[in-house]
Amino acid sequence: MTDKVALITGVTGQDGAYLAQLLLQNGYVVHGIKRRSSSFNTERVDDIYVDPHERDTRFFLHYGDLTDATNLIRLVQETRPSEIYNLGAQSHVQVSFETPEYTGNSDALGTLRLLEAIRILRLEKSVRFYQASTSELYGKAQQVPQSETTPFHPRSPYAAAKLYAYWITVNYREAYGMFAANGILFNHESPTRGETFVTRKITRAVAAIDRGLQETLYLGNIDARRDWGHARDYVEGMWRILQHDVPDDFVLATGETHSVREFVELAFAQTGRTIRWQGQGVDEVGVDADSGAALVRIDPRYFRPTEVDLLLGDASKAKARLGWTHTVGFRELVAEMVQADLARAAGGKWHSGRFV
Ligand code: NDP
Ligand code: GDR
Q1: 276: CA distance to ligand 1 center in Å?
Q2: Where is the NAD(P)-binding domain (predicted)?
Q3: How far is CA 222 from the centre of its chain?
């Protein structure tokens, strides 16, 4: 057991929920910041939340927002964390083209507000700060694979906002001697991945098509390539970054890259379907090899004004210094996500990392 106290922004998101679970297992007291919403938004953490009226708990939720500086200062003051994980963000790349100002406010300035809260409360020497940085920083990278030394070239308002967050984290480390560290994480997914990210959109559609609830899956650029890992592995890496003896920046990645097209093929294969591609460009269609049904079509609405074509990470620094490596490979990830969506479609309930 430990007397460590963690504060997590974005606790209701995919990573926040996995991280809260890991830290509770490691004996931490965990405080999470959730946003006020007109409908329930705590589904991912409902299974670890215990009503404080009922029995002792080490997991607490507080209302807050990264756009509200006074709220952040008060929460840091009240919860007195030894570790802060800044995972909260408007995290959707395509949405950031529609809401660039809000994305900058929450993702860039939100990070600054949290760092300032630490400084205002004079906690620079007692708090360790983790910033959720991203492989989107590399954007139009000239170098493959991408490592901590690869130059950044952001390709979206989201990536530009995260670039500011990355550098302000480095700056507070250098200027004030804070233990402030960036995890530059490549894409990581899970059965609780947000439904509008491409992997989950695909696995949900595969399950719905299998049950006869949907006919066609519409996608954008299926030739984009990503280095996809499992969120459970990556939150372990975040924790290790803050346990390191010095604050530093680390890439977490699998070292494998696959296209959206390959993800589609593998996902449908989980339900016994083979996809044959016909046509070209926006007219390309993914056809069921047995029935001839058009299961996948291209919708240019999902094309981005500027795209990130190829991400492939080199996590050798994290391996050497943190002893971190991924454990879940691409095929296993796709299988787990499809099986989870099939179980969900059949009425299963998510509990402790699986369906029961
Ligand atoms: P999610 O979109 O699943 O979760 C984002 C979380 O941030 C949610 O809890 C959301 O709340 C919260 N949030 C959004 N806006 C605000 C705000 N203004 N104030 C406070 N909280 C806010 O993202 P992931 O869990 O996938 O990612 C976690 C972090 O890691 C993000 O910062 C993301 O940009 C970054 N990242 C993610 C990668 C990935 O592949 N998953 C890779 C690299 C970086 P609500 O539930 O109410 O929407
Ligand atoms: P990404 O994830 O932009 O890499 O950001 P996303 O799953 O949204 O897109 C991956 C690739 O798939 C292509 N694509 C589509 N994407 C979506 N969402 N919907 C579609 O229909 C579709 N069709 C094709 C995209 O063009 C893109 O190339 C994620 C987020 O979690 C960020 O917060 C994080 O920082 C990065 O990963 C690393």
Answers
A1: 35
A2: 7-337
A3: 20
